[in-house]
Amino acid sequence: MSADLLSQMEAQHASLERVRREIGKPDEIVRDGRSEKWLFANQYRATSSNRIFLSERISCHFSRNTYTVTFEDGRVVKVDTKSNAWVAQDRDCTK
After folding, report:
1. CA-to-CA distance for 22 and 25, rounded, in angstroms?
2. What confidence category does residue 92 fall into, taking pLDDT thresholds of 50, 70 and 90?
3. CA 90 to chain centre
4. pLDDT over 70 for what percent of the chain?
5. What is the CATH code for 3-88?
6. Which residue, among 12, 63, 1, 4, has the nearest Cα to 38 in the 3D structure?
7. Would you give the distance in Å from CA 88 to the centre of its chain?
8. DSSP string of 32-67, one letter each residue
9. CA-to-CA distance for 53 and 17, rounded, in angstroms?
């Protein structure tokens, strides 16, 4: 999923069916009166290591992109994007 594709769908006021067909099922749906919000999220993880003398330091780099697509009357009216990134010092790289 790309922000460019979502921006294009916003400009074209794409239908619910088109968004589902081209992007897939959302992770969450929030309904509020005549509007509906679909939330999509992608999370990525990468690791790096830094060796200083005899010790090794493992870093986990996380990135999460959340896309909120707002529909009114079955058409895209707004797309919001939120990005978060963080680093954890965890040997297992699980946090």
Report:
1. 9
2. low
3. 23
4. 93
5. 3.30.1450
6. 1
7. 20
8. ETTEEEEEEEEEEEEEEEEEETTEEEEEEEEEEEEE
9. 57
State the average pLDDT for the chain. Answer: 88
Can you read off the two tokens belonging to residue 47? 């690791």
The amino acid at residue 85 is: A
Quick one: tokens of 68?
């909120």
64: phi then psi, degrees, rounded to nearest 5: -130, 125
Integer Cα distance of 91 and 95 in angstroms: 10
In this predicted model, what pLDDT tens digit does every residue of 5-37 receive, in sequence order? 989 999 999 999 999 999 999 999 999 888 999
The model's pTM is 0.75
The residues spanned by each domain of the chain are 3-88
Contacts with 8 (C-beta within 8 Å, 6 or more apart), sequence order: none
Which tokens belong to 56? 């090794």
